[in-house]
Amino acid sequence: MTWKHKHLLGLQDLSRRDIEMVLETAKSFKEVSSRDIKKVPALRGKTVVTLFFEASTRTRISFELAAKRLSADTLNIAANVSSTSKGETLLDTARNIEAMNVDAMVVRHSSSGSVFLLAEGLKCSVVNAGDGCREHPTQALLDIFTLQEKFGRIEGLKVGIVGDILHSRVARSNIWGLTKLGAKVTVCGPATLMPRGIEELGVDVCYDLNRVLKQSDALIALRLQKERQQDKFLPSMREYSRLFGLNQAKLSEAGDHLIVMHPGPTNRGLELSADVADGPQSVILDQVTNGVAVRMAVLYLVLGTKTPA
Amino acid sequence: MAGTKIMDQEAIRRAVLRMSHEILEKNKGVERLGLIGIRTRGVILAHRIKDAIKAIEGMDVPTGILDITLYRDDLTLVATSPVVRETHIDFDITGMKIVLVDDVFFTGRTIRAGLDALVDFGRPAAIQLAVLVDRGHRELPIRADFVGKNIPTAQNQDVQVILGESDGKTDEVVLKDAPENNEGGLNV
């Protein structure tokens, strides 16, 4: 069991074995975060930079804490204060940061595939923290880790993903990861926000949330990305909420076996009602806790790989 | 490759029993005593010592599991990150007399990592070291308090401890000439 990837760009590129290795490693790192002294010296002397061209609190802080708990030094760069706002290209910005001997760059960018450009052009490890509508691998890994923790298995698990599938990198990463591990994934959302041919990724499509709820063990509600709705995909937010928002009534009808997940930040009252988000079936805060452990595992594994992937 | 058998099942059993008595003698009983095994075979030995102490004194000694991977001093030298396994210590080690247990005592680097890991969990009153085999060639100023057997070895030889619980075979300690791959691991 060895890890051979210098970068983590998406779950599309990982094998089932690779994903299982991240999950196994994350289990050990979760224990570190529960200690009084939440720090181990594994990445002492390494430098991890987070380079974010899109807004984020959870993911950035989660990566920063993960790096710090492994004793790496961290540096955070937000796009609005970086030189890209003066017209520097993405690759130039990244190369300049790398020139200061950085070991890993955690990148979020609005262009799908931008992380590949960086992985090719840089010598350091690149970890994708969300590239456009393509992938957000660590989110899916922490979702899968949480599911594994709650159910003890992924194989055969029925997982529904509801919301804006078209724009969701979280959905795509989860589809890759969950199907590779043998889960049965059903995607659900307005037809305008359902990408054509999504079935080819090995998922079922269903436009009725109540039906998805009844047949699922877990439901991942996606954030409705208001910033990507300029093209009038939806008649109204209210209609979206009525058809695809999850509230306690719909959840109770489906039964109390189901667990509810959300990658955050939640639009309360839109995709998730407050009583569901705070209710006993919600594992949203467990996801956040597990996010640090999973990102520790990812940083530990990619930074430990000397040979180019 | 066969190698030379240094200890058989009976010898290992007697050594563990003697070390258990020595631990009790030195610590004057089981009060504030804790055992922590270093993965993988140290954990098995720690549990055998725990069982022996239970048989002798009728008392349970808290026992934990330590994985030292994240504290290794060669992480920047190895080609790929070694597999990390869980550490599980469900008692507060502060103020306790902790006996660290491992199978083979060699360079001392594993124990150094173990000591660093332990102090991250609290401040024990004392830390002692129990090993089944001491094969010499120390690279750090560390010594063992309880030793099952001292075995003179050459640097390039390999000491293999085989225990039923982890290896599914009869217990034995074997000395081999050409070192075999110990899971791509550290020289312990």
Describe the structure.
The complex is a heterodimer of chains A (309) and B (188). Chain A is built from 11 helices and 9 strands. Chain A has 309 residues and is of the alpha/beta class. Chain A is globular and about 55 Å long. Chain B is globular, with a radius of gyration of 16 Å. Chain B has a 5-stranded parallel β-sheet with strand order 3-2-4-5-6. A 3-stranded antiparallel β-sheet of chain B has the order 1-8-7. In chain B, helix 1 (9-27) packs across helix 2. Chain B contains 4 helices and 8 strands. At the A-B interface, helix 1 and helix 11 of A face loops of B.
Give the helices and strands, then pairings.
The complex is a heterodimer of chains A (309) and B (188).
Chain A: H1 16-33, E1 47-52, H2 58-69, E2 73-78, H3 90-98, E3 104-109, H4 114-121, E4 125-131, H5 137-151, E5 158-162, H6 169-180, E6 184-188, E7 204-206, H7 209-215, E8 218-221, H8 237-244, H9 248-254, E9 259-261, H10 274-277, H11 284-303
Helix pairs in contact in A: 1-5, 1-11, 2-11, 5-6, 5-11, 7-9
Chain B: E1 4-7, H1 9-27, E2 33-38, H2 41-57, E3 63-66, E4 97-105, H3 109-119, E5 126-134, E6 146-150, E7 158-162, H4 164-167, E8 172-176
Parallel strand pairs in B: 2-3, 2-4, 4-5, 5-6
Antiparallel strand pairs in B: 1-8, 7-8
Helix pairs in contact in B: 1-2
**Percent in strands of chain B:** 25-35%
- The total of beta strands of chain B comes to 8
Supply Rg of chain B: 16 Å
Per CATH, the architecture of chain B is 3-Layer(aba) Sandwich
Low-confidence segments of chain A: none
The biggest sheet of chain B, with number of strands, parallel, antiparallel or mixed sense and barrel status, is: 5 strands, parallel
**Helix share of residues of chain A?**
25-40%
The name of the CATH superfamily of the largest domain in chain A reads Aspartate/ornithine carbamoyltransferase
Q: What is the typical, i.e. mean, pLDDT of chain B?
A: 91
The dominant shape of chain A is: globular
The secondary-structure class of chain A comes to: alpha/beta
Number of helices of chain A: 11
Biggest interface between protein chains, with counts per chain? A-B, 29 and 23 residues
Portion of residues within helices of chain B: 25-40%
Largest beta sheet of chain A: what is the strand line-up?
7-6-5-8-9
How many domain units of chain B?
Answer: 1
Which structural class best describes the helix and strand composition of chain B? alpha/beta
